[in-house]
Amino acid sequence: MQLHPTQVAPASAPPPATSATTSATATAPRGLGRGDLLARVALVLVWSSGFISGKLGLRHSAPYTFAALRFALAGGILLVLALAGRRALPRGRLLAHLAVAGVLVQAVQFSSIYVGMNLGVPSGLAALIIALYPLTASLIAVPVLHERVTRGQCLGLVLGLGGVALAVGEGLHFDADHLAGLGFVVLALLGISAGTVYQKRFCHGMEPVSGNAVQLLAAAVTALLPALFAEGFDVTFTAGYWPVLLWAALINSIVGVGLLYGLLQRHGTSQVSSLFYLVPMVTAGFAALVLDQHLGPLTLGGLVLATAGTLLAGRVRS
Fold first, then answer.
1. 147, 121 in Cβ contact below 8 A?
2. Under DSSP, is residue 70 helix (H, G, I), strand (E, B) or coil?
3. Distances (CA, A) of 274 to 135, 156, 306, 318
4. Which helix (H) or strand (E) holds 10?
5. How far apart are CA 55 and CA 160, in angstroms?
6. What is the distance between the terminal CA atoms of the chain, rounded to a whole angstrom?
7. Distance between CA atoms of 307 and 164, rounded to whole angstroms?
8. Secondary structure of the chain: what % helix, strand, coil (to 5)?
9. pTM of the model
10. Does residue 85 sit in helix, strand or coil?
11. Rounded to whole angstroms, how far apart are CA atoms 55 and 73?
12. Do residues 131 and 277 lie in contact, with contact meaning Cβ atoms separated by under 8 Å?
């Protein structure tokens, strides 16, 4: 990731998958380098895998407990690396701003997603709600960051949202038992929307490793309170749990958020956030492979529509 104005933890992009590569490449405006294209592909792949790792982690742990362990492990590793490398530690006002952004983007978003899925919200529906992030983040960015959202970009965002809704429409169902879970996922949406805009507005000059360590440790403390007092720190450590926890901590927490922040500093909030329209479809693909969930015709049709919307929104430079 770049070192200025906002620094994030460096991460290597995983090899692109065929369908995701085509979609993410299509979203990039002309003139972008290969590294930027790979960063976009990696963001979609990594963010999509977070719904799968969360679903698997909830088999062994209560939601806030899983979130607290994830954040503490990732933050602890980054803090050790920062101290060993004698990197500058944030102080004063920047330290406070980093903590706020970390609580919003990490703790509020992911803890709430875990709670929602634990209450019965399907991973596809959770991904659909989080895919509203382009709309909500763009609306927040207009008064806060003074970013301009054109009519063409709005049309692309709405088109992408329609594709997402179509893609997961086969699994949508509403009943009283899911209302609380849906509320938590909406809270997650507000967390990432406000947090990324806050990060771009107030966290200039962030050192990549130590800055992310502060954000993750602040999120860990936030999630630890309900984990201890509401869940009794409910977790069963098994051989199958450790790979899931490590993936969530290292790949989802460090690499995923690092990629997001890095792209946000090179491009406008509206343009980068449009990539999230691809997440539900890629999540559905992962779910078919890992959780034995099958893709239906509506999902495939939604993929085409969402890709078209992402292409339109991404072509508009903020």
1. no
2. helix
3. 8, 8, 10, 12
4. none
5. 25
6. 20
7. 9
8. 75, 0, 25
9. 0.79
10. coil
11. 19
12. yes
The one-letter amino acid code at 178 reads H
Q: How far apart are CA 75 and CA 220, in angstroms?
A: 8
Give the pLDDT of the chain (318 residues) as one tens digit per residue. Answer: 333 333 333 333 333 333 333 343 444 444 457 888 899 999 999 999 999 999 999 999 999 999 999 999 999 999 999 999 999 999 999 999 999 999 999 999 999 999 999 998 888 778 878 887 777 877 787 777 777 777 777 787 788 778 777 776 766 667 777 789 989 999 999 999 899 889 888 888 788 899 999 999 999 999 999 999 999 999 999 999 999 999 999 999 889 878 887 887 787 666 777 788 788 878 878 888 887 766 678 777 877 787 677 667 656 544
Judge whether 252 and 53 are in contact, CB under 8 Å: yes
Both tokens assigned to 150? 């054109």
- What interhelical angle do 151-168 and 297-314 show, nearest 10? 160
DSSP state, 84? Answer: H
Three-class SS state of 267: coil
The dihedral sign for the CA sequence 268, 274, 278, 280: positive
The sign of the torsion formed by the CA atoms of 228, 242, 218, 115 equals negative
Tell the residue number behind the tokens 């500093």, with chain if given: 265
Three-state SS at 62:
coil
DSSP string, 194-260: HHHHHHHHH-TTB-HHHHHHHHHHHHHHHHHHHHHHTT-S-B---TTHHHHHHIIIIIIIIIIHHHH
Q: Quote the tokens at residue 78.
A: 């980054």
Per the CB < 8 A criterion, the answer to whether 241 and 61 are in contact is yes
**Residue 5, preceding peptide bond in cis (omega within 30° of 0):** yes
By residue count, the chain amounts to 318
> Could you give the CA distance from residue 18 to residue 285 in angstroms, rounded to a whole number?
12
Helices (H), 120-207: 123-130, 133-145, 151-168, 176-202
Give the CA dihedral 76, 79, 84, 90, nearest 10 degrees.
Answer: -170
Structure tokens that stand for 194 in this block: 């406000």
